[in-house]
Fold this sequence. Notes:
The chain has 338 residues and is α+β, with helices and mostly antiparallel strands. The strands form two sheets. It has a seven-stranded antiparallel beta sheet with strand order 1-8-5-10-4-3-2. Strands 7-6-9 form a three-stranded antiparallel beta sheet, with no helix packed on it. The chain is 36% helix and 17% strand. The chain is built from seven helices and ten strands.
Amino acid sequence: MAKKKLSMKERRKQRAKKQPGFSVDRGILNELPSVDTWEKTEASVGAKRENIQPDGSDADVETEETMAKASALVQTQRKSVDCLTHIRKRVEESFPISEAANSLAEKGYFVYDGFLSKEVEGGSKEDAMFGDSMVTDMLSECSDMFTNDKLQRDISHLADGEFVSQITGGENYSDCPRLTEFVVSITRHLPPLLNKEFDKLGPGDLPYLDATASMGSLRLYDRKTKLGTMSFLSGDDTSGSDENVSERPFGVVCGDSDAADNDSRRVTAIFYLSPEQWDSCHGGGLTIESDGQRVEAKRDRIVLLRSDTCSHRQEPWKGSDESGLDKASSVIVHFIKG
């Protein structure tokens, strides 16, 4: 009988039986529990993983700084959107646009109080408080720019203690974000509404305004500068006085009629950023020549003027030595013809 041929698997089993048995000395491994009973233990200090950073490491500090910067950027963007939206809503929903257009057509000027902070019908107290905080922020920006030497002295009225600066945005946005947003938003939203109302009034000399461009600037008054300049010019340290300022002449923004033909400014908005306690005795504001109307520099008051026809005079600022009453500001926006 022929011997049965073994398979490959069976031949491997036979060879394994012929080899002598042996055991492996596992040493310390024999003392370890089996895999199914392994328990996690706390590693020694020297055995801790190197990729775990200790508290206060450079990586942690850098991460915290990055997160803080990102959070600050988000908050800044939100504040900017909130401010732009607040101004738009005030122009579109509460500003008496029809009354303003008629007053500009008939008298050449219009005065409105509480532009950003008045409690209006349908509005909330929180909304009014937000507007008031905006006015405070804008005044603070003016003071900070003055402190940081980012304003220019108005040498045309050297003894009046006034400083000026253009509001241009762009790389200068960080100097005055709320002021810039005010100029941008009011330029975008007020001229179109005035144009519609001017159209309703029919043919006349009322201008058509551009809603894409304007000229914005700020003007700041500093009492200490005024009194110091007056003392210096007189040569007498005791002669500085609020009464020693000559009145400015009446005139229109564009100058005479010939200058107005070559000037694109047609409606000027003046927004006063005076402290809350500022009143008539502290000066500022303007006087209208046609009817003698005195317009005080009241906080959160906006004045619209026909740039080419309304003759007016800026009244001298005075202020007070009391805390918080030594400075006042105004934002001036010239809307140009379209």
